[in-house]
Amino acid sequence: QVQLQESGPGLVKPSQTLSLTCTVSGGSVSSGSFYWNWLRQPAGKGLEWIGRIYATGGTNYNPSLESRVNISIDTSKNSFSLKLTSVSAADTAVYYCARVAAVVGMYFDYWGQGTLVAVSS
Amino acid sequence: EIVLTQSPGTLSLSPGERATLSCRASQSVSSGYFAWYQQKPGQAPRLLIYAVSNRATGIPDRFSGSGSGTDFSLNINRLEPEDVAVYYCQQYGSSPLFSFGPGTKVDIK
Questions:
Q1: A48 — contact with chain B (CB < 8 Å)?
Q2: Three-state helix/strand/coil letters over B32-68
Q3: Residues in chain A closer than 8 A to B96 (CB atoms)
Q4: Cα B30–B33–B12 angle (5° rounding)?
Q5: pLDDT tens digit string along A85-105?
Q6: Torsion over CA of A4, A40, A29 and B97, rounded to 10 degrees?
Q7: How far apart are the first and last CA of chain B?
Q8: Which residues of B touch A49 (CB under 8 A)?
Q9: Cα–Cα distance between A66 and A84 in angstroms, integer?
Q10: Is A49 touching B (CB cutoff 8 A)?
Q11: pLDDT at A104
Q12: Which of A6, B61, B64, B80 has its CA 20 to 30 A from that of A67?
């Protein structure tokens, strides 16, 4: 059973960098069959896709965040990470990591439980 | 950019009734790249339906999806209290690569 678990600070100061890690168990981030994604959801609002990374390290980002986002992969730790720079209160949200099984279809079949990140001084 | 619009915003029904949720896309979406998710309060979204009409693993057959092009539907037969949730549609293919509808909240009367 594939499991994803987000980790990182729950509070970030404005203008600083938000950093989160998603650790995967029951599967390998090195597998060429999957994309590894970050999404977020402000309280009471809908879902926003942030970006994805492939096993080779190739990435795609949401154009609305692209200038501030970096997603990286660490195959030795079976994890992938999100960095979001110059954060503001608008970046306060629950952040999810999720898997896409590329060979089957472009949908999120496994999700982490989510981690709340608040941006506040 | 493909914009997904969901209706109604809230659906309040009695147990045992049938719920019909709609998702309309501003441009045609490939059937293989359309999905529905269920999100219960305090939980992560869960995949319900993929490729328009295929139920994900463990999803009861009370849930069914249909549609094509720009109009898609999710039906929930014999509504149960455990179905109280927000339901989101999702498309892949247009920038941004993944986008979601605003959600339909299903309540039990």
A1: yes
A2: HHEEEEEECCCCCCEEEEECCCEECCCCCCCEEEEEE
A3: 49, 62-64
A4: 105
A5: 999 999 999 999 999 988 778
A6: 140
A7: 37
A8: 96-100
A9: 9
A10: yes
A11: 76
A12: A6
